[in-house]
Specification:
Two copies of one chain form a homodimer.
Chain A: H1 3-10, H2 17-24, H3 36-48, E1 52-59, E2 62-69, H4 71-82, H5 93-99, H6 106-134, H7 141-169
Antiparallel strand pairs in A: 1-2
Helix pairs in contact in A: 2-3, 6-7
Chain B binds a DNA duplex through helix 2, helix 3 and strand 2.
Chain lengths: 173, 173
DNA sequence: GTGCTATATATCAAATTGATATATAGCACG
DNA sequence: CGTGCTATATATCAATTTGATATATAGCAC
């Protein structure tokens, strides 16, 4: 399913697997991350389907595999982009633990929530500084929208967990 | 990593793989879902580590594999529960497509967002009716908290995407 | 010329998904 | 009584993904 993210990056320019992975940093990594161990096999699949073309290049004496999207690849990517996205499922370890909190004691629950809020704040700071860095740059408006969603999402989480922490304070121990 | 969710369910009572899967419905499935195809191998692993014990039972002439958590399994589960949960990563196809929206046309973008909001509202109704059904029942307060998070999360999404839709209306086409 | 970091690819075991196959139980309908 | 439908229950498999590890070169600093 991550084949399309690779094609999406190649829409901009031909890239090596390593370059795609780097390009994900600070952009898609916050809402759709992949590992190098899946990027290389994915390029192999895409090549077999002739959606990309591998170009072996020698740069400063080093061999690189640069992948270029083909017209067929572009069509494939645009057909995928056209389809309405599926509803996101939450997959959160924090909620899973919360579900089983009857088995944890009150101090553990409180510590979890406080440390979780700290982590949320760290991520929030990261995303905000990233967005500030993009302001004024030639970054696309939609890329900024995805960052904005992330920022608002973590703000929502901070609010929710702070309220939850309060309700924990009132629990009968 | 899903071994702990199985142990968590067995904390309540011994269960078959099929029963665990059923128990996830309407409870953990919204924030942590797994398939039967991963539950059975997971029980195999847990048995090898003596964290659960398989009991072959004959019920109405049918053989069942009922799994019971061992004291070692309980210790293992509680040790996992103790640790502060990792920060949730978003993994949303909708944001991935949004990232590449430069390549889609304005009507497609609008249709996406409207249909996505519809899907969010459907999920929201589902979660709300589930929570209402739990009110007054003997359901644990933390289980209700996880449902509440879900409800508030999808409300947040509805708000955000409605604002986003508005901003799309103002875009230069 | 030694050591560190970045670039670049490849490989692998382990886990997970989603699909499919198999078989029985229980129920309803005519 | 049999036919068909749905729920229960387990097993298996190809394909994919992760996270780790291995390997090798380039470029820079000291």
């Amino acid at each position: 399913m991550q084949d399309n993210i690779l094609l999406g990056f190649l829409m901009h320019r031909p890239m090596t697997g390593y370059e795609v992975k780097k390009a994900m940093g600070g952009s898609t990594e916050f809402f759709f991350n992949t590992s190098l161990g899946s990027i290389y096999p994915a390029f192999g699949r895409l090549e077999k389907q002739t959606l990309v073309k591998k170009e072996r290049r020698l740069e400063q004496g080093r061999a690189k595999n640069v992948y270029r999207i083909t017209p067929k690849g572009k069509k494939h990517f645009l057909a995928w982009l056209e389809k309405t996205p599926k509803l996101a499922n939450i997959r959160e370890e924090s909620l899973l633990k919360m579900f089983f909190y009857e088995h944890a004691d009150a101090p553990t629950r409180g510590r979890h929530v406080r440390e979780y809020i700290d982590a949320v704040e760290g991520r929030l700071a990261e995303l905000i500084s990233l967005r500030d860095g993009l302001r004024g740059s030639k970054a696309g408006r939609y890329r900024i929208s995805t960052l904005d969603f992330g920022i608002e999402f973590y703000r929502f989480q901070r609010r929710w967990y702070e309220k939850f922490l309060e309700s924990l304070g009132n629990e009968a121990i």
